[in-house]
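Q: Predict the assembly, please.
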Amino acid sequence: METTLTINQISRRSGVAASALRYYEERGLITSERAGSGHRRFPRHVLRRLAFITFAQKLGMKLDEIRSELDRLPSDHVPTGDDWAALSEKWTDRVDAQIAQLQRLRAGLTDCIGCGCLSLKSCKVLNPSDALGRKGPGPRGWVEDLDAPSGVCG
Amino acid sequence: METTLTINQISRRSGVAASALRYYEERGLITSERAGSGHRRFPRHVLRRLAFITFAQKLGMKLDEIRSELDRLPSDHVPTGDDWAALSEKWTDRVDAQIAQLQRLRAGLTDCIGCGCLSLKSCKVLNPSDALGRKGPGPRGWVEDLDAPSGVCG
DNA sequence: CATTGACTTAAAGCTCACTTGAACTTGTAG
DNA sequence: CTACAAGTTCAAGTGAGCTTTAAGTCAATG
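A: Predicted assembly structure:
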């Protein structure tokens, strides 16, 4: 069995488009060797890297953040299972936080919108202290306005 | 108390930037009347609409989808609590699905990356049948490759 | 009357994560 | 040798969801 794979082999095995792989390499998330022809040759372990990237994206991480995380892997050897485990350990917290956020969201779906009241004072769902929402573009989250008479019900 | 609010009043109460409110109006998610001066006057109930929009976005819905949902509200009267409840009822399923997805993700975090195996055959996490990931740009999800020798471990 | 502040519009700009296109080279099969 | 597939680079395009900018209007204040 070959020790390295072409870009399309990696693409098929990972489900990540070849163009995305080139983009990831450009962004420093993965690296490749080159064949004499100039074609990329990926070592097998980039697949695990790609799995990590895919996971991380599902958790809402940006590519830059993901790269920072990957940079923490040891550079003196191909990462072992333990290396990966260490890297992804703190993520369970992140996932738990997202689950909790969704559970609040679920509760608020009935309580907060459903009831027709939507009092900002009592709404524990639409508040800005949670991190599920993106920064940058997109609504910043429901902000409590202490000057408001009594929520939005008026 | 005023029955209508200016764009900045709405912005402060909702936490949605004025520019975003104009954008939403342009996209047909909210509507406003106009004062003689040409300034927007928002009826109070757009706040509830904005709450709904904020919720929906947290669930990963696109503005076009959200608009379609909002279009299902009755147009012959200002939506009641029941109207809103009906609209958001089916969302609990959506939230539950997302929670389940995250729980699989959490499990896979240890099993799948942590173990250092990442066998595509056994990985129930990185598979494309789930809907948490976006369509369009972004990785399409880990795709099972039946021709692969034995996962990525090689 | 000048200024300030809140608002308006249209158009352009931005971020993120890619994708697409054009022009080109390399490797393999017939 | 000719085809053709698979790879390359660089630049530009895409889509979502806004934000920013420029230029202007309107009402109230000093």
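Residues 118-122, 127-154 of chain A have pLDDT under 50 and may be disordered. Residues 93-143 of chain A form one domain.
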